[in-house]
Structure formats: C-alpha cells, structure tokens
Amino acid sequence: MSLHESFVKFWRTEGKYMISHNPERFYDNLERRMEWWTDTVQIDEYVLTLRSRKETTRALIVAFYDYLRRTEGVEVESPLYDVSFYDYAFMRQLEMAKFLQQRRTLREIDEHFHIDERTRREDLQALENGLEIFGAEIKITKTREDGRVFYESTLHPIFLPLNLTEVYAMTEYLKNVLPPDDPNSQLVWDIVRRIELQLSDYAIDKICPADGRPDVSNDYRDDRFFSTDDRHVQMYLMKRRSSCRILWMGKEYTGTFEPRRSGEGRGYVFRTESGEVLDADPRDIEVIRESFVYK
Question: 126-162: per-residue pLDDT in tens?
Fold first, then answer.
C-alpha cells in the first residue's frame, strides 16, 4: 500500500480528530503532497522546514507513523519523534525563557529549538524587551565574554491552571508557611500577590476581598541579588542545596539550609555536616559570605 493510501485511511479513522482548526484545509494540503512522496524521509524534510503549524503537523505525522507500525508492521525511524516545536511564537518564547535558566550560546538555542536565524533573533529580542504576562514581566539578559554571546534568565514562567478552591488553599498556605517576622516572609508574600495578580475580579472578591486587586512591582530580583541580600540569602542557599559556613551563638558551623522534615515543624533549619539540626532561629544565624560563590 502506498503512503498516500495509508494516509487517507489514517485520516479517516484517526487523523481528522486530531485537528481542531480548519481540518479540511489541513488535510487537503497534506494529502496532495502524499501523492508525490515515496518515503517517510520526504515527509520528515517537509515538516522540518514548515514555518507555521509545525508542531500540529509533527504530532499528526508521528501519529501516522505509529498507525503504520500498528496496521502494516512498518517501523519508521524519524527525527520527528525526538523533537517538539511551537505553533505560536508566545509559546516558543516561554519555553526559550525556561531553556535559558542555564547560560546558552546562539548555537545551543538554534539546535534545541530547530528554528531559523530570523525567528531566533525575533524571539530573543522579544525576551530582551520583556514579555508581560498577567502583569508579570519575563526577561532575559545578553552578555558577551571572550567574543561570544550568551543569553540567560533566572526568571521561570509558572502558570498553574487551578480552580478557585485550589488557589485559595495554596495562597493561604503560603501566607502561613513562615512567621511574619521571618526575614523571608516578605519574599513569600510577594509570591502570593503575584499569584493573585493573575486572578479575575470575581476571584479576588471571593478569596481576598480585604486586600483587593494586587499592586505588584515588575522589578524582579534575580538570584544574584538574593545571594547578596541578608534577608534572603538563606532561602537562596536552601534552593541551591549547597554547603556554606555560618556563625551562631559565637560558634562557626558548616552545613546546609534545608526545609524542615516531617515532624520538625514549619519553615527551614540549618543541618550541620554531622547531621545535627541546630536549635536556631534563622534570624540569629549569620551567613559567612566567603563560604560560597554565586553561580
């Protein structure tokens, strides 16, 4: 059976249910090409060079290859199994912001996203300018080092589709995870307000009517700031899970800041190299800055 015949059967039984936007036009476009293609390599090349609906097409073709395996015993080796694309620039730019949690070069970005130079340039420029989402701004930074260009970001876009009860449970818990006088309590409250910033007016009236619509600054602080700020350096080190030295009650200790384990209460503790948990108030602990390096 030819690829064209197999594709027509696949579309009638499975494929048409995968396409929600203009399926007839989508099918006509692919079906005409299937008449001329003689092997799956040609199909792969077509998908990899598309400029629109690339992920939609890739997902459909992968499903078609799976159909060939199930119905005709044809095993297809295709690069389309190991990649993913983004039909909308906004989606791709958010994924790019996450990819740049580690400092990357232009080549690494190109290889990961399989995009042309123009698209990559437009995406990076948009991220350098800042994407505003629900009042929050996602930005990346560009640096030059030894003649090479690097891009990175410490901001991680997180959008949780929650019902209102789940939002209420999460924000109320966060408000109480640390006592008000803890040096990191303001950091936690900032997170709560940014969550509330995404809510509808109806939701605000339901779960936090006394607070009203949040007024949250877009002046985000990155990890470099937290690593040098006395109020938040402990939280930064806990996130890193790396060893450092501290001073407490006139004595020096080496260990890590960790979330409290089950039964140890709320908040976080300092655990020494020997495994001992210090009976210390985090406000009384002084971090020795020379004991760690920001990275």
Answer: 999 988 877 678 889 999 988 899 999 877 777 888 8
pLDDT tens digits along 35-70: 999 999 999 999 988 888 889 999 999 999 999 999
Token pair of 292, please? 């760690």
* Model confidence pTM above 0.70: no
**208 class by beta-carbon count within 10 Å (0-12 exposed, 13-18 middle, 19+ buried):** buried
Question: By C-alpha distance, which of 285, 291, 251, 292 is closest to 268?
Answer: 285
Residue type, 21: H
